Each structure stands twice: as C-alpha cells, then as structure tokens.
Amino acid sequence: MKVLVAVKRVIDFNVKIRVKADNTGVETANVKMSMNPFDEIAVEEGVRLREAGTASELVVVSLGVEQCRETIRTALAMGADRGILVHTDAELQPLAVAKLLKAVIGRESPDLVILGKQAIDDDSNQTGQMLAALMGWPQGTFASNIGLGDAGAAEVTREVDGGLETVSLELPAVITTDLRLNEPRYASLPNIMKAKKKTIDTVTPEELDVDVAPRLVTLKVEEPPKRQAGVIVDSIPDLVQRLRNEAKVI
Amino acid sequence: MAVLVIAEHDNATLSSATLNAVTAGAELAELGPVTVLVAGEGCRAAAEAAALVAGVAKVLCADDAVYAHFLAENVAALVVGLAADYSHLVAAATTTGKNVMPRIAALLDVAQVSEISAVVDADTFVRPIYAGNALATVSSNDAIKVITVRGTAFEPAAAGGGNAAIKEIAAAGDAGLSAFVSQELTKSERPELTSAGVIISGGRGMQSGENFALIEEIADKLGAAVGASRAAVDAGFVPNDYQVGQTGKVVAPELYIAVGISGAIQHLAGMKDSKVIVAINKDAEAPIFQVADYGIVADLFKALPELSAELDKEA
Ligand SMILES: Cc1cc2nc3c(=O)[nH]c(=O)nc-3n(C[C@H](O)[C@H](O)[C@H](O)COP(=O)(O)OP(=O)(O)OC[C@H]3O[C@@H](n4cnc5c(N)ncnc54)[C@H](O)[C@@H]3O)c2cc1C
Ligand SMILES: Nc1ncnc2c1ncn2[C@@H]1O[C@H](COP(=O)(O)O)[C@@H](O)[C@H]1O
User: Fold this and answer.
1) Which tens digit of pLDDT belongs to each residue from A18-62?
2) Nearest CA to ligand 2 atom 13
3) Which numbered atom of ligand 2 lies nearest the CA of A115?
4) Which of B71, B102, B230 has its CB closest to that of A179?
5) How far is the C-alpha of A10 from the C-alpha of B98, rounded, in Å?
6) pLDDT tens digits, A66-108
7) Does the C-beta of B245 come closer than 6 Å to ligand 1?
C-alpha cells in the first residue's frame, strides 16, 4: 500500500521563543527550524512500514515556504521515497492545510495518511481530523500503536485522557501520531547523501485549485504573565509550615 | 447568540471539564441560552445531570448504540445536523473534544479555535500558542464558531441549581467507518488530574515505577492526584495519562509539587498556572526553580520520606 506523511517546518522545540516587540507574532528571523517532532514520528512509522514491506511507497508532503524543502529532505534521508512541496508564502491555517492535503491525496491516492497530532508552533491539533472529515475517511488520532493486519483495516491504539483506547478503521484512513508511537531514527550520512538524489515535486495552491484564505485573524500576540521565582527553603519542616500557614494550601 | 456545548460524560455524570466548557459557553452566550448535547448509549442519567447545571437552558439527549464510544465519525455527523441552530459549538479541550471538534469544523467548512483561555467577545478569543510561551488573540469571521476550551482557564459551572428541559433527539446513524475495539482505562481512587486541588508529579529522577510509591504515599495524605513528566511516562514508570504538559494534560491546582522534574518548557506548559508550585530537585540550577514558589534542593529519596513523616505531625 501507499503511505503519505505530512511534515511541517516549525521552530525547533529547544528554542526559547520570543514575542515580537510589535506584538504581531513571534521572532522567526535567525531561529533554528526543524521538522515538527510529531511529524518525525509519523515519518518513522512510514519508514518502518516500508521496511516491513507493508508499504510499497512512502511519499512526504510539506506545505509552505521554499525552505520546507529542507524538512522534506530530512524525511527523505530518514527513508521516504519522494517528496512534494506545496509551495506558498501565504499563511496556512489548519483548514487550508487539510484542503491542500485533500487535493494532493486526489493526485496520489494513498491508502494511509499519517500526520502529527499537533504542530508545536500553533498547537492546533486539528489538521488530521479535518482532513479525515473532508475525505469522508475514518480517523485514528493520538496513536501509540498502529496495527495493519489484513482486510483493509487498521487497528489504532489511542492515547486518551483516561488511558488507552483501541479502534478499528476502514482503509483508507488518517492517523495522527502521539509521542509514544515510536522513537524516530537519525538519518545516517550515506542516507543523507542518497536523499539528495530523490525527487521533490513542487505544486502551488493555485494549481491545486484550493482557496487558502485564513479564516482566523490574529489581532495580537503577547507574552504570558511571568511567574516570579520564589524562595528556596532549607528544610522539609519549614516547607510544610509555609504550605500550611503562609500559602494555606494544605 | 446560541451556544451548543458538546458534553463529555460516562453516561451517568458529566466530566468536570464539561462544566468548565459550560462556563465558557455562558460567557459567549451572554444572555442567550446554552444548550448541552449529551450523546451516548444509556446516557439519560448524564442528560439529567446536565439539566441541573447552572446556566444550562436546554439539554439534547441522543441515546443510541452508535454513540456508545463517542466515535468521532458518528458524533460529528450528529452535531453537523444540529449546527444550523447555533452560533457557537463548544467542547472541552480534552482528548475527546480534540478528536471530534475539528472534524465538525471541517464538515461545516469553518475554522476551529483550539483551546481558548479567554473570551474577548463573541468572535474574539485568546489562545496559548508555542506551548503557552505566547498568547494569541484571534478573531473569527466564520458564521459558526467551533471552539475547544482550556478547562483551567474557566471556573466550573455549578453542578446544581439549573432546571433545563431535556429533549430526546434522533441518532444520525452509523457512518460505518470505524469501530470500537477495546479500552484500557487507568483505575485510580485518587482525584482526577485536571480537577484535583493538589497534584504531586514525579519525573525521571524517580528512577523507577516502584519508587512512585513514595509519591503515592504523600498523595494519599494530601488527597492529591499523581502526575508525571513525559520522561517518567516514556520510561514506563507510570501510565501515559499521567503526563502533564504541552502534549499531555494542562492542570492548574492550588498546589503542584514537582519531584525530580527538571522543568522543560513542555512540562511547564502544563502546570505553570498552578497557584502554588513546590519543586524538589537535587540540582539547584534546574529550571523548575524559576517558576517554583518554594524550592527544596535535596535528594528526593531523602526528602519524600521526610515530607511524608512531617505531614503526619499536627499542624
Ligand atoms: C514535542 C514534544 C512534546 C513534549 N511534551 C511534553 C509534555 O507534555 N510533558 C512533559 O513533561 N515533557 C514533554 N516533553 C519532554 C520535555 O522536553 C522533557 O524532556 C521532559 O519534560 C523531561 O522530563 P524530566 O524533567 O522528568 O526529566 P529530566 O529533564 O531528565 O530531569 C530529571 C530531573 O530530576 C532531577 N533528579 C534526578 N535524580 C534526583 C534525585 N535523586 N533527587 C532529586 N532530584 C533528582 C535532576 O536534577 C533533573 O532535574 C516534550 C518534548 C517534545 C519534543
Ligand atoms: N504546513 C504544513 N505542512 C505539512 N504538514 C502540516 C502543515 N501544517 C500542519 N501539518 C500536519 O498537521 C499536523 C497537525 O498540525 P496542527 O493541526 O496545526 O496542530 C502536523 O503535525 C503535520 O503533520
């Protein structure tokens, strides 16, 4: 079967982000960018399916600016077969991303589409669910295990607030990854070299005939109130005394 | 304004997060009515509980086997059929709400506003982005606003005092796309993490699942819930649903005690709105001390038994 994975380029999770002085957004100039960590997990899952022979082809797609090519290259170095860049400088919100991915699916006809559960920049946690809705496909969100047995179905174990839940999905389906699905590999040097020869096709939202106009307008972006560091207490009895008499929380 | 709150429940009672969502719904509705949808199988008791919630004007009850496990495909079809009567569709930003609401939004061709922490007006909301390191104020032009609500940012609505009418509604059928297979829910006598007044969490510093007994002993003395960092969950010390943080649960108890947790931004994202934070860590440089009201630089294997003993003493 054919597997499609969506990878987003985001500010690296280790970067301490700064809000711009004019409150229009966060500082992105000269900031380290990486693949969204949940998407690394999605790529890893796809590569494992490919290695197991379950998947016959693994295609990765990223949407956004020219530099998303680097993110696609990283996925190719991890083991994906080829890439697609949906190139635009426009702001893309989850509904627009889902519509673009739907158009890509229309061209590629994958049997399984894997996304991250959440992009760590907008923290939306929407795109996979929206894509499944637009396709009329089932969804397996927050996956910590994916079982692809037989008969065109996937069994997905989901991380839910109360513990774990397993659902069975008819294929084709959309699955979104949670942290414990797998541990993504680092690309080896030979594989990074090999990835340079793999193809990345480029399309635009116009070519895909998708209206990407944002539905939400960001009026301002502010820093949250800062917490002040408190005191270091030197004994447990002192701590308990303060929690009882000063903070009055126990 | 007419607001529909999609309830999360166990067929008998509403989840506490739903009560927070009702409060956000009431702010949106101002003087308009808040309707609550209870979809489930054998969920009449939950619908009756919803009817008693203060501020709820009407309850819709869809009692059918297809909603037994709240599969997103089936619930979304039901809600989309009701949506034309409402200006806002609201749910708690729990794994249940996060699973189903974007599906509804896409079917309605509208955006979703995720995990709002404040209502500015009927079209404008505040939501945390970048693990809570920035707060965005966003405005939606869509005819129907689909919203999930961060529970810690809104007081729970009172579970009593209301007297709403309950209307039974027809199910919207089985999409036939997915099926429930099984679940493994964590059993605990302790309070639920997202509504607990006191939480004590352990991190990688705990070294093993067995050592969490030290934390549980204190939790039981304080009536606290037990949480964890991602590192502790990944290492298998405790189940996944203990995880507090950007990608786990967001909590804001009166008292949060972090033990053997370094204080990575992704962890802070889930607990920095707690009223009082205590950190126990042997490394005086650990970033958790920058947000802690009270810090103890100590080996947790010494500090926890001492804390347990101290709590036994009379105040
Ligand atoms: C996409 C993404 C999402 C993430 N989401 C989350 C999330 O939701 N929640 C979350 O928690 N993390 C999350 N993380 C992980 C996060 O970045 C950190 O790796 C994690 O929080 C570290 O856990 P920790 O503090 O337990 O471990 P460490 O950082 O290893 O810290 C252990 C601490 O224990 C202390 N210690 C060790 N032994 C003792 C002792 N005997 N006595 C006292 N102190 C001791 C050490 O000094 C140290 O400070 C996420 C990461 C990514 C990339
Ligand atoms: N611009 C993008 N390019 C590629 N994938 C994306 C993009 N935006 C979102 N996604 C995918 O959707 C997932 C969830 O994103 P979000 O709904 O924004 O939290 C991500 O983990 C990606 O897999």
Assistant:
1) 999 999 999 999 999 999 999 999 999 999 999 999 999 999 999
2) A116
3) 23
4) B230
5) 21
6) 999 999 999 999 999 999 999 999 999 999 999 999 999 999 9
7) yes
Report how far ligand 1's centroid is from the alpha carbon of B258 (Å). 10
Q: How confident is the model at residue B31 (pLDDT cuts 50, 70, 90)?
A: low
CB B287 within 8 A of CB B269: no
Superfamily of the domain at A2-224: HUPs (3.40.50.620)
From the candidates A239, A241, A244, which should be mutated to test the interface with B, based on the most B CB atoms within 10 A? A239
| Residue A6 Cβ contacting ligand 2 at under 6 Å | yes
Query: φ and ψ at A226, to 5 degrees?
Result: -85, 140
pLDDT of B145 reads 97
CB contact under 8 A, A216 and B73: no
Mean of pLDDT values over A223-238: 94
A31 at the B interface (CB within 8 A)? Answer: no
What is the pTM assigned to this prediction?
0.97
Q: Please tell me what DSSP assigns to residue A20.
A: -
> Do the strands A153-160 and A139-147 form a parallel or antiparallel pair, or are they unpaired?
antiparallel
Domain boundaries, chain A: 2-224
β-pairing, A9-11 vs A139-147, is unpaired
Q: How far apart are CA A190 and CA A197, in angstroms?
A: 12
